[in-house]
Amino acid sequence: MTQEQIQAAFTLISQDDTLIHGVLKALNVSRKRSNYEDLYQEGLLAFVDAYQHFPGNPETEQHALMVYCFQAVKWTLLMYFRQMNQYNQHIGFVDRQDDNNDAVLDYLDQLSSPITSAEANLLHQECFEQLYQACTPREQRFLVLRYFYNAELKEIAADLNVTRRTANNIKFKIQKKFSAVLIE
């Protein structure tokens, strides 16, 4: 990347930085978040890198450039979040007092992370298989919908033909079983 390209990228983004803020907003990152400025800086660097790799002419195809850069910044920040989750990976246990505690199932969400090592993937697969075997057929269907199809709770409830409250109860039963699997 030449110095002129870097300068052009920084000039373009400094004139209108709504692209970076838009990506952060699309990722549900609040400006009140303590590391918002750090994420913004990561986005700036990703924009400059995307500007360099843009396959067309950035001066004549500005709309295509912005679409390309938006996706590149978004993917870069998602990778950043995945790396941070990898560093901060904790296995939580269910606190039945708090209905919004998804710590155990959040751990399962990391099963499909492309950043994890081969050893970690093997461990995650073994945990998932043990949990799957411990579940009833309906709970197994819940797991498949949640972790292989990324279905939301309301979608799972519709597929299982139950209310959202019942789907939530199924989730809590799975969490309890997963805590038992982890303790064994």
UniProtKB/TrEMBL annotation:
Keyword Transcription regulation attributed: yes
Segments forming domain RNA polymerase sigma-70 region: 136-173
Cited Pfam families: Sigma70_r4
Record InterPro entries: RNA_pol_sigma-70_dom (IPR014284), RNA_pol_sigma70_r4 (IPR007630), RNA_pol_sigma_r2 (IPR013325), RNA_pol_sigma_r3/r4-like (IPR013324)
Gene Ontology biological process terms from the UniProt entry: DNA-templated transcription initiation
Record bears the keyword Transcription: yes
Any GO molecular function: DNA binding
Alphabetical UniProt keywords: DNA-binding, Sigma factor, Transcription, Transcription regulation
Highest rank taxon of the organism: Bacteria
SUPFAM superfamilies named in the record: Sigma2 domain of RNA polymerase sigma factors (SSF88946), Sigma3 and sigma4 domains of RNA polymerase sigma factors (SSF88659)
Name used for this protein in its record: RNA polymerase sigma factor, sigma-70 family protein
Lineage: Bacteria, Bacillati, Bacillota, Bacilli, Lactobacillales
